[in-house]
Design a protein that fits this description.
The protein has 610 residues and is low in regular secondary structure. The chain is built from 18 helices and ten strands. Among the domains are: 133 residues, no CATH class; 124 residues, no CATH class; 77 residues, no CATH class. The radius of gyration is 57 Å and the shape is flat. The protein starts with 22 loop residues before the first strand and ends with a helix.
Amino acid sequence: MSPGDLSQAHKDLDSPLRCVSCHEFGAGEARFKCLQCHKEIERRLTEKRGYHARVVRGTGQQAVDDCSRCHSEHNGRRHPLVRWRTPKSQFDHKEAGWALVQKHARARCEQCHNESRITPEDRTVLKRSNLSATYLGLSSRCTACHQDEHHGDLGDACTRCHTQESWKPASGFDHSKSAFVLTGLHERVACGKCHKPVAALGNHAQYKSFVFFNTCKSCHQDPHGGSFAGDCEKCHTTAGWKPALLGERFQHNKTGFPLVGLHAAVTCRKCHKTENFRAKLEHGRCMDCHEDKHRGQFAARAGVECGSCHTEAGWKPAKFRIREHAATRFPLRGGHSNVACAKCHKGEGAAAIYHPGFASCRDCHQDRHSGQFAAAPHENRCERCHTDLTWKKALFTLADHQKSRYGLLGAHAAVPCEECHRSSARPEERRFHFESLDCQQCHADPHRTLQAVAAGERLSPTTLRWGCPTCHTTRGWKETGPFDHAQTRFTLTGKHRGAPCAGCHKPAVLGEKKLVSFAGTARACGSCHGDAHDGQFAGREGAQPDCERCHETSSWRSREFDHQRNTSFSLAGAHERVPCRLCHENRREVQGRMVVQYRGTPKDCKECHR
């Protein structure tokens, strides 16, 4: 009889014997009995609230029969019972009777539609076992989701004061319509300053039924100690405690102490310690009211009267300026005139020192030279080289330098001071005393003498001491004096005497600098001269040929060659008069030049004689 299986939610009713649970049979067409089980829907239709009350057509049995328009049964276990007219993501919440606006419009569905938000009344009639999966059971009252911060004192119509965008500020609340209208400074007072927790109300803030705001003393302390019977409104307004209206009737300048400068802003209680404002107050001297912040340092000046340096307009700045300072034992001149007072007069407030020591510059200034001038004749007297106009312009001149252990000669006289007087460890600290006055203290060694010593080179005593003056003068680096090459292991003879230094001692590029190394220069002929014989006389394992066997430094041409001793072919007899070229006539081209072949020359007679 069944047209199909029921859905998963109604599977317990899937029996021919239980059709009457959902259908009413009788005359005519069978009727539905949905609302007999679904009381939660019936309640919403009766109360005309919620989504069903807006979409169900008709009333009574017509409303029951209209359920099948959205909920279809007998379609199997997997068939969903709800057929949405629009996708849930496009659902207009206004159709549920409560439009989502402001922050509610940005909330996720599950933030409201969950088991914790369902009202106790709806819990008793909802059919679902998983209440977090239903969209029913919520109330449109704010307190159904939000905690009532007023604990019912102001009712549940929260939107009378608050918006759905933010709890604070309560823009809908108008305090002027309450029993206590806010005026003046009361308008800026935070709500919690007056609406405080009350123990009788369970320690939550009270918002109504106030009985304690009829007088100012209900909230404010009486600073006059009851002198004016607590009638604050006679002198004050809500616009501000100061100025008091009393000032319009009482003029302090008619007393023996007119209020000028900062005194006009002093509270009455600062001077009038008791409620008796007519009691006579001592005010002839500043010290009658004010403490001596300088601890008697000016007791000898002007009778410790503050008015000699200060005014009633303010403690700072003082009237004591450079002109007044000129009358002291330390007039301010030069750079001292721009120094802030606190730089010399150390300490804050009562701890300030106004009589500091100034017998020596070091009483205030740090020794920038780390004791280099502590000994005689300077004895750390800064004024021997500096003035109080500026630190950088020293009095130490070139003439003074000439009297020192190192007189400035030649190009040294034009070198800026900081080029020599500087410290590699601390650039801000200048070095004026040197342990050694050798050139290497300032100049780098372009000849790499130290590297030569490390390599085992045997150097002359002059070279070992970096004897730069041996070759150079202070007038210029390129101006060199005479150098005795005979002191080295390579005496210049013959044509070597006229050769330029750079011909043998060639500059080598190291980084961005050219370095000329003199120590360790190779002495073999082949290190400077090319091998004109293309290796025919090279030593073993490629060693340099011994050119001196055949040649001299005076000329390339060999004046005497012992053919008998140096070769295996004796030139005895007529051979002694034969020119070399007639036997050594073989030549070959090597890198664009013709090289005479000496080795391999035939020794048999028939090779030369026919």
